[in-house]
Amino acid sequence: MITTALDAPDVGTERDALVRSLVFMGMALAVISSLGAPLVPQIAGAYHVPLSQAQWSLTITLLAGTVATPVLGRLGDGPHRRTATLVAVAASAVGCALAALPLDFGLLLAGRALQGAGIGVIPLAITTARDSLSRERGQRTVAMLSITTAAGVGLGYPLTGLIAQGVGLRAAFWFGTVISAVSFVIGLRVLPRTGHLPRRPLDVPGACLLSSGLAGLMLVLSEGGTWGWASTELLGLLALSVVLLAAWTVHELRCAHPLIDLRVARHRSVVVANLVIAVMGVAMYLLMSLVTRLAQTPVHTGYGFGASVAVTGLALLPFSVTSVVASRAQRRLSRHLSPRAVLALSCLVCLGALVFFTLAHSALWQLFVAMGMAGLGIGCAFAVIPQLIVLAVPATETGSAMSFNQVLRCVGYTIGSALSATVLQSHTAAGQLLPTAGGYSAAGLVGVLSAAAAVLLALVLSPRHRPAAAAETV
User: Is the Cα torsion angle 195, 196, 200, 201 positive or negative in sign?
Assistant: First the structure.
């Protein structure tokens, strides 16, 4: 039995500072990871590249984050957790500075790739909270950390939009440099030392297989619309990615010290958490992509609102606000309902948001309402999902398990973004740049199906009672 700070009284300013610092770091790095999305049109203009190339300023961050997160998560389960966290934050700061400098487009992409390391900080922060806080406060902090990735995106869009529109494109990246540098200084002061934790060899072959397979899969999802979904290159890359991921699975099951313990991942609570986070990620990013694109569509189309980047970002602010509110409501709901019921209810609210958008997106205020509803569902779901994992896995596997969950979340985001682009493109007439109004209803229906799948997964697969497998090992 591991008796760490989880069983100790949670008092004192030191732990208060740790909680505030972890949440600030998580929120700051989530904001930074979203910098590319609202700035894509401005990046295309500033660097004189097509929009399809400028889109890489978002894609490459997700790719790098997907590759780095599993390795960071495994390092987080050992004595290098503090170092791994600080290195990831420092990489994000350097990446922001590189993107802010007046250099060529290739170096901008290099900077955005470095920023992807920040995506892996959340699993490390969750592991730190589990080890350093009392059980009750640890659960509250884990829930708050989990929603920072969603709330940070909703906050990052309006912030970067306002900065870019008012001061300029590079100012948005300088803003990211400052907040990531502040995060590094804070982490240096408050992150607990972890040299006492047992050492485990890093599964380098497993890291290479998983990183290569996931990178290929993310590339397929991101570039399918550009390359053509039936192109030989795309299908070949997809086949190679599947082979690499299959080889990784076999390797992990045979490895004495796997990168991700798939035997632990087979626990029913972990399975449902991973499946639901991926499907909810699809619905969340699909809706965000549709809202941001619809808001900026010119008025002359008859259905667009011609909103500026700043106003478009503000349309996502309700998502950020309600996701934080929902995480607090989740704690109260969990006192009366099982995790299964809370998760299913959360997915149902998200489903309602997608239905609302699909049926009503003819006025700008309706976009605000849809995003607010989505924030309630996503915030509550993202708050309860890590608890399902933390309560089901040994403390020594928290970082690895949470990093895998984060990877699946990123895959879901990429699928959602790709689906929105593909459906809208299918409703764009030859020779035209913009889709018909019906394209948004069709894409919204895809989101409805994704959210409905999440509801079914939560109802059918979730354990009926609180998972207790890890209760005695924590």
Answer: positive
- Angle at which helix 364-390 crosses helix 121-132, to 10 degrees, equals 50
Tens of pLDDT along 411-440? Answer: 888 888 888 888 888 888 877 778 898 999
Please list the alpha-helical segments (H only) found in 266-362: 268-296, 309-314, 317-336, 339-359
- SS3 of 236-270: the string is HHHHHHHHHHHHHHHHHHHCCCCCCCHHHHCCHHH
- SS3 readout for 212-223: HHHHHHHHHHHH
DSSP state of 116: G
DSSP-assigned states of every residue in 368-407:
HHHHHHHHHHHHHHHHHHHHHHHTTS-GGGHHHHHHHHHH
Rounded Cα gap, residues 241 and 277, in angstroms? 21
Look at residues 403, 307, 322, 320 and name the one whose alpha carbon lies nearest to residue 363: 307
CB-neighbour burial class of residue 432 (10 A; exposed 0-12, middle 13-18, buried 19+): exposed
**Structure token digits, residue 450:** 């994704």
* Contact between residue 370 and residue 317 where contact means Cβ atoms under 8 Å apart: no
Res 2: pLDDT: 35
pLDDT value for 155: 77
In contact, 449 and 362? CB cutoff 8 Å: no
Closest CA to 334 of 164, 436, 173, 467: 467
Contact 466, 391 (CB under 8 A): yes
The predicted-structure confidence for 140-159, as pLDDT tens digits, reads as follows 888 788 788 777 777 777 77
Q: Which two tokens stand for residue 215?
A: 């990178």
> pTM of the entire structure?
0.80
Q: Residue 237 and residue 413: Cα distance in Å, rounded?
A: 20
What is the Cα–Cα distance from 416 to 377, expressed in whole angstroms?
Answer: 17
Establish how many alpha carbons lie within 13 A of residue 188's alpha carbon, considering only the half-sphere containing its beta carbon: 9
Q: How far is the C-alpha of 326 from the C-alpha of 108, rounded, in Å?
A: 36
The ranges of the chain with pLDDT < 70 are 1-12, 36-38, 51-52, 462-474
Give buried/exposed letters for 295-306 (b at 16+ CB in 10 A, else e): bbbeeeeebbbe
Task: Name the token pair of 469.
Answer: 């497998």
First to last CA, the chain: 7
Topology given in CATH for the domain delimited by 13-192+259-461: Growth Hormone; Chain: A; (1.20.1250)
- Residue 7: its pLDDT value, please? 40
- Domain boundaries defined on the chain: 13-192+259-461, 203-258
Q: What is the pLDDT of residue 93?
A: 94
Separation of alpha carbons 367 and 344, rounded Å: 24
pLDDT in tens, 69-92: 888 888 888 888 999 999 999 999
